[in-house]
Every structure is written in C-alpha cells, then in structure tokens.
Design goal:
By secondary structure, the protein is an alpha/beta fold. The strands form 2 sheets. Strands 3-4-2-1-5-6-7-8 form an 8-stranded mixed β-sheet, sandwiched between helices. Strands 11-10-9-12-13-14 form a 6-stranded parallel β-sheet, sandwiched between helices. Helix 2 runs parallel beside helix 3, helix 7 packs across helix 11 and helix 9 crosses helix 14. The chain is globular and about 65 Å long. The chain starts with a strand and ends with a helix.
Length: 410
C-alpha cells in the first residue's frame, strides 16, 4: 500500500519523545509498504528550529526508506497559547502546500494523527483533492484536555473546536482511538461505532530487550551519583498538563530519604520548575535535558521506578500515559499518578502503585511503603513486562493496524 501520514510531531531520527509512528512506519516499510510523511519542523518540546530549517518553508528528507517532508511550523509554539495556536495553523498551511505541490498524487490511504485537532484540516482537504479516504487518529481528547487544564477558555473557540471535531469524525473513513475510554467518549458523542478501531500505544521491545541483556545498571548508577539512592524517573513533557510541581512538593517531604526524582524532557513549564527547585534549594530533584530514546531507556534501566504524571483532571482519566509502556518494557514498576484507565492498566497488570494526583501526602506514603521492598518491586517490574509483551507489543499492533486499513478499503 501507499500511505500518506500527516503527523505534526513525527520525530527526527535523533529526537527524544514518543516514537509511536516512527516505529510503526519502519515496520510497515519493512513489510513492503510505501510511506510518505508530512511533518512539522518543530519538536513539541523545543523552543526553536534546527538550523537546517531556518528560513525554509518545505524540506525533503529521508529517514531510512521513508520520505519525510518537513514543513513550516512557527517558533512561537512553546511561548504562549496564541503562539501555540499560530504554530498549529502554520503547519496546516505548510502541510497543505507540500501535500498539494510536493508529494505524489496517488495514495491508498491518508492517516492523520492528532493532536493537534487542526491537522484534520490538512487531512480532509488532501483527501478530497486526491480522492483518497483518510483515517483520523485520536491520541488525546481535544478540546477536552485543553479545557480541563485551563489552556482553552474562549467559549467561541471551544464551540468551534467541538464543531470541527464532529465534522472530522463524520468525514473520516476510520477513526483510531488509543484507549477504550476514547471509544466510549466518541460513541457518546454520536460517532458510528463501526468506524472506530482500537490500536493503542505500545512498548518498544526491540530496544529494551537488547539493553536488558547487556546493560550494566550499577555502573550507570555509579556514574550518575545514584549509588545508594532510590531513583524515580519521569520521562516526558514538562508542560501545564503534566503538573510536575506535584513531584517537587513530594521531593520536599522526602528530602531526608534516599529518594531522588529524575525529570527528563523539556516543555513550556521547565524553566519555572527549575527556578522553583533552585529557589527552595531542593537537592533531590534532578533535571535532564531531552535525550534520544536509546539513552532514555538507559536512564529508566538505571532507575528503581518510572513515574507517570498528569494534572488532576477528569479528561486525563481517559488516557494511557505513553511512557508507562516504556517503563513496563524495561521491567520497572510504575508510580502511577493518573486516575482512570491508566490506573486500571497498572492494577490489572500488577505492575505498580497508584496514588491520587496532586495528593502530596498520599504520594509520599506510597513511596515510603515501597522503599525497602526490593522483592515486590522486582516482581512488579516482571509483571509489567509480561503484560506489555502479551497486550502491547508494537510489532503485533502495527500488523493489526495494516489489517484494519485493508479491510476498510475493500
């Protein structure tokens, strides 16, 4: 099949962050499918473009055997809400230009993955012009998440966003949801359930299995000054939705313990968090800049636990945290500070511990209860690995995705 993927945040080969589709297209390409990607020039947590994109509107690249067209995204993305909106729409305009004038005309399917919701504009218009059906993928319930976190407040914009969301769902050939809760939400909104498929996020065992066999965690810990420490690692965005201040509050209460929080990534709130840690002279919080995925797995393997963290909001009860699957693939127990289906995942797999988001006392008590229980931690790490291997293996899910597409095109 010839597939056109529209993904504003498709990673560069050396980018940090969630690599769902980067891994997926490699697997599809290895099976003989021809993939072209329309992607943005800005990483979702970055504050600027790479030098090679400065002053450019469209740049053609190769990532392996996959053709990637990098198109203009405003550098205002991580500066303000208005800046972020303009960054979204700048990608809509530039991806449309590339889709019309640069990429091939004929495709079997167009896949559009959100957020942002507005990539649906590019997907729908290109679908009409190329006379090709499109699949719309829902990786986050937007605008609900933006409303719950206080990012989106304008009643007019909220109404327009909901109307556009409904329009895109009607026009899509298929809608892929990443969690069962998304499926329920869409059906409640009146979406035809026969159009909805479920291909969730997954674990990348190709990388973790290699490291599990030859990585020396003790040497890594020694090199990073973590010998004798209980290291809890968070990997991901440092934004409003993540509300990482709750980990700082917990770190303050655990300052006399061996617990160290290691926060890896970048985002709009990172500088504010760093300033707060510096101002309060907090010694058991460490910030690490974004690193490639291969390095991220080393940080996880050199830790005692992985943390999945989001702001306390009803919308986030419907999501799976991406990094939870990386922790599971690395046989690390999960400190789950997200209620809803993420909590259910950890409890069903018996691979971690839940505490109420933003409830400092409860989080502290959960951590204290497990500090000296190495056997339970090891067992939970093994449980998570086994559960992910059986239910969230990216290779198996990539094949299932292609099967669903083929059946829809019959």
């Amino acid at each position: 099949m010839k597939i056109l993927l529209i993904h504003q945040y498709f990673l560069e080969e050396d980018d940090p962050g969630g690599s769902r589709f980067n891994e997926m297209v490699k697997l599809w390409n290895a099976e003989g499918h021809d993939i072209t990607v329309l992607a943005g020039m800005m990483h979702y947590s970055a504050h600027g473009k790479r030098p090679e994109y400065k002053g450019k509107w469209v740049v053609k690249k190769k990532q392996g055997n996959v053709t990637v067209w990098r198109t203009q995204v405003s550098e205002s993305y991580n500066r303000s809400f208005i800046g972020r909106l303009w960054a979204y729409f700048s990608f809509v305009f530039s991806s449309l230009y590339a889709g019309i004038f640069k990429v091939d005309r004929n495709y079997d399917i167009i896949i559009v993955t959100s957020p942002p919701l507005f990539v649906g504009v590019s997907g729908y218009i290109l679908s009409k012009l190329k006379k090709t059906p499109f699949i719309f993928e829902v990786r986050d319930l937007w605008p609900e998440s933006a409303i719950d976190t206080g990012v989106l407040k304008s009643k007019l914009l909220i109404r327009l966003a909901y109307n556009f969301e409904s329009f895109i769902y009607k026009k899509a050939k298929l809608i892929n949801v990443l969690t069962p809760a998304f499926r329920t939400s869409l059906i409640e909104k009146g979406v035809d359930e026969n159009k909805i498929i479920f291909i969730p996020n997954a674990s990348d065992f190709s990388l973790s299995d290699t490291l599990l066999n030859n990585f020396n965690a003790e040497n890594w810990r020694r090199a990073h000054g973590h010998t004798g420490k209980f290291v809890i690692t968070y990997v991901g965005a440092h934004g409003v939705a993540n509300h990482l201040k709750q980990l700082i509050d917990v770190a303050i209460d655990l300052r006399e313990s061996p617990v160290v929080f290691q926060l890896i990534g970048d985002g709009m709130a990172k500088r504010e968090l760093q300033n707060l840690v510096s101002k309060k002279s907090i010694q058991n919080i460490e910030f690490v800049d974004s690193v490639p995925k291969s390095e991220v797995f080393k940080y996880i393997l050199g830790s005692d636990m992985g943390a999945s963290v989001l702001k306390k909001a009803d919308t986030f009860k419907t999501i799976y945290s991406n990094k939870t699957f990386d922790y599971m693939a690395c046989k690390k127990p999960v400190l789950m500070l997200i209620d809803g289906i993420s909590r259910q995942l950890v409890e069903e797999a018996r691979c971690g511990f839940y505490a109420e988001p933003e409830n400092t006392e409860q989080i502290v008590n959960v951590i204290k209860s497990i500090l000296n229980n190495e056997n339970e931690l090891r067992e939970m790490g093994n449980n998570g690995y086994s559960h992910a291997k059986a239910n969230f293996d990216r290779h198996k899910l990539a094949k299932k995705y292609i099967t669903e597409i083929k059946e829809a095109l019959v």
